[in-house]
Amino acid sequence: MASSGRSSRWDELPDEIVLQILSYLDPLHITRLQLVSRKLQKLCLDDELWKRRCFEESPWYQYLKNRRRLSYETEGEHRDGAALQSPEANGSNTNGDGNKTAPDAKKGKAVPGKTRRRYQRWQEIQDMANWDPTFPNERVSWYSEYIHRNGPTCVNWLQTPRIRDRGYEAMMEARGLELYYPYDGNDGIGAMLAVSPLDDGSVCLWDVKGTRGKAGSLLATSKSDILFIDGPGSQNTRRSKRVDTGVTECVSVDNQRHRAYFAVQSHLIEIDLERLEVVSRESFEWSITALSKIQNDVPLTVGTSLGIHLHDFRSRARATHTAVERVDQNDIFKSIFDPTPLLPYAPLSQPTPVSIIHLPLRGSPDLVSNDIYVAGRFSNILHYDRRKFPVIMDSIYSGATINSMAAMPHPFSSLDSEVRRHGELSTEQVIRSKGDGEGWTLIAGGTYKSKGSLEIFGLSQTAADPIVFSDGAGSIKWFERDGLTECRRLRIGHCEGDEAPSLFASMSAAGELARKIVSTKSREGPDRPNDDNILFWTGERLGLVSFTPTPLYQSKDSDEEEPDPAAEAEEEERRRVAERMREALERQADEVRFMQTFGQGVLGE
């Protein structure tokens, strides 16, 4: 909090001078300055200050300036909308009227500094408008945005669940991930829990933000075997009776009813998250390969290897089933002539859907429309309308194997995006392109010809944040909303909390891969700065990317053990040195590959 009633010399300075000083400081110093005075507290969070810093330090802007510089040096003359050279590098420049040179330059005279500065300011405003990723009425904390783009990052590993038997101890692997907000985030304390099925058939809860216990620690674990097909006490050693490790979207949580649904082979098991007990089981004809998120007032969409189903979990008649429905093998005719109609489902000619999303409702991101999009190990993204299910409304050809999808309730134009990427739209055209369009943006990440792919589609009604995703090399990457400009990347690395340090632990082959990532932004109360960390699941463990200079916690942390500050400091220093060495080697390898490619290009000419 700001100091109360105590004046500061900062208060005597004009706002313009204070903002200019703040523009040269990093977020950590500015965070400390907020404690000096109320004036600084207000100015330190100034949106315009941090938006300008995000823009000026963005790779997008650096690429744009480099393209203009190369274009100018190659052609040797100015073009409309071409490079803006600095006064030292260029004696004349384009004016705001679109002429190739300023009027005085045409007469052989030097361009006045005032004209040049006016043009530079005009060009900067236009560039910033082309870069600006936000849409009208979209709330963004540019202070948090700057931290996410340029601030320090740390990988924190959540506490590892273990099983102990007869003196032996073993790590239990997590088989999925979803977030649980009790009472839909309105429980009064902002609790955020991570839910995951474990390899022994139990359900585990972690406290992500430390509202109910220690941050990153285990909060509760159910009895083992409750997620196995035959239930507790049966022979469940076979993998065919456990959660399929190849299914990424195997958990879906109902925050209001405190229930979670787990896909276990061809069964959907409902768990009460307050009691951690089985409520119901339902079987499907084929193995479940994907679950949609649960939203209010709409059924859960279940993807099986050969079809898409709508599971209305709100129906109490079906929720009363406490055992898996089985066909009586001794009386096949009973099932053939059973008058109970089959639930509608959409058959698939190509198997294995992997990702299912419900399109958000325009103007209300927390609500969903009737549109369902399904993607997977097939070349098209399928579109269903819940009101006309199971008819396929249309499809989008991708050609890639889609592993995950996300959607934003904002329009997207591939043409406008391409022109904006080169900074060629005027400010008025940018405003018009954002305000006049209607529709959504569909983001699909997957694999195309053995390489990672990121595709963005504009969806019309008739037919922040930067984008974050993980790749197959063990990195989490941030991209601008154009889907082409990389903002930053972070290597997940290796969780060393449960093993002795190894020479090979920092090598690329030992790094973890993030199979699923989710945002941890709070749902209740006003927005807090830097409150949107990234929770990820590697297929075995849970981790958290925090925008802090030091880790928040480690997998080996527990309430029973008192951490050793000296050992932690030594471990942190060792990790930093290993990270710097790895980055240096990677840069050297990149340079070698670049020079090899460059040499081949020269010889080929």
UniProtKB/TrEMBL annotation:
Pfam families: F-box-like. It comes from Hypocrea jecorina (strain QM6a). Residues 558-571 have a biased composition (Acidic residues). SUPFAM superfamilies: F-box domain. Residues 87-98 have a biased composition (Polar residues). Residues 76-117, 549-579 are annotated as: Disordered. Residues 7-53 form the F-box domain. GO terms for biological process: protein polyubiquitination. This is Predicted protein. InterPro entries: F-box-like_dom_sf, F-box_dom, FBXO28. Gene3D superfamilies: 1.20.1280.50.
